[in-house]
Amino acid sequence: MPGHSQFSVDTAAREATALAELGIPAVLLFGIPAHKDAFGSENFDTEGIVPQAIRAIKQAVPELLVISDLCFCEYTDHGHCGVLNSAQRDDFVAALGDGYLLNDPTLDLLARSAVVHAEAGADIIAPSGMIDGMVAAIRGALDGAGLAHTAIMSYAAKYASGFYGPFRDAAESPPSFGDRSQYQMDPANAREALREVALDVAEGADMLMVKPALAYLDIIHQVKQRFDLPLAAYQVSGEYSMVKAAAAQGWIDERRVALESLLSIRRAGADMIITYWAKDVVKWMR
Ligand code: PBG
Ligand code: ZN
Questions:
Q1: From ligand 1's centre to the CA of 164, what distance in Å?
Q2: CA neighbours closer than 13 Å in the CB half-sphere of residue 43
Q3: Are 243 and 250 in contact (CB under 8 A)?
Q4: Domains in the chain: ranges and CATH
Q5: Residue 211 among the catalytic residues
Q6: 199 has pLDDT over 80
Q7: Residue-wise pLDDT tens digits, 92-149
Q8: Any catalytic annotation for residue 158?
Q9: Whose C-alpha lies nearest to ligand 1, atom 6?
Q10: Residues enclosing ligand 1, CB less than 6 A?
Q11: pTM metric for this prediction
């Protein structure tokens, strides 16, 4: 992915300090574990890479908000966003066929991981797997652990998108077989996004997200019209990398197109934008 690389814990803390100095209010962390297994165990290990990074960043720059992207695809050896039925020896589950994601066992592990990340100091937990019931499970676990103040930013309407390609390469998280359409949404379906958002609101989400952004401006607009929680839009890796590639060819003006895209996302109704251009935007706007 152009212009981006993986950080170690110490370099992540240094980068976070530089971001805060630029006036960027928050970072969103993704972990790449040393070991992957069927259950993504490093995600709920207190010495896992993300809890270590959260502690280092909060120590270096306490005022910077740390958002932890909570999902299993970077942590599982199969690259799916939770527990698969191949991990359970049960006739009913086996009858679902190979490589079927088990919703409720995944909820238990998400809840455990959320508590580990929040105890490490994450201000916001951002579950990104589109697992049904994830917000309620995480809210219950956080409250039960005395972490009622930790907020949840739900990837409420996340589509099964081709625009995630460069991220999966950078984060070493492509599914080893199949795709994510069992849990992420069908790009053809707009009304399902509103149902998914309504469920997350009812389950206790503090903030909502629509993802990707540019190809889903209609969804951002509709969610903004109907729900009054703060709304984030995630301008994903493919949106960013396409512009970088075209600009490298001399075909388009990166700065102009990036700012125009961000403006359109804002115009559609996003209150917050997650973007790989964050550092550039600060410089451009100055
Ligand atoms: C993990 C996750 C993904 C992204 C954010 N969280 C990948 C995916 O769903 O396959 C994509 C981010 C990007 O493309 O910039 N579930
Ligand atoms: Zn995932």
A1: 6
A2: 30
A3: no
A4: 9-285 (3.20.20.70)
A5: yes
A6: yes
A7: 666 666 678 999 999 999 999 999 999 999 999 999 999 999 999 999 999 999 999 9
A8: yes
A9: 128
A10: 69, 71, 73, 81, 128-129, 164, 167-168, 180, 236-237
A11: 0.95
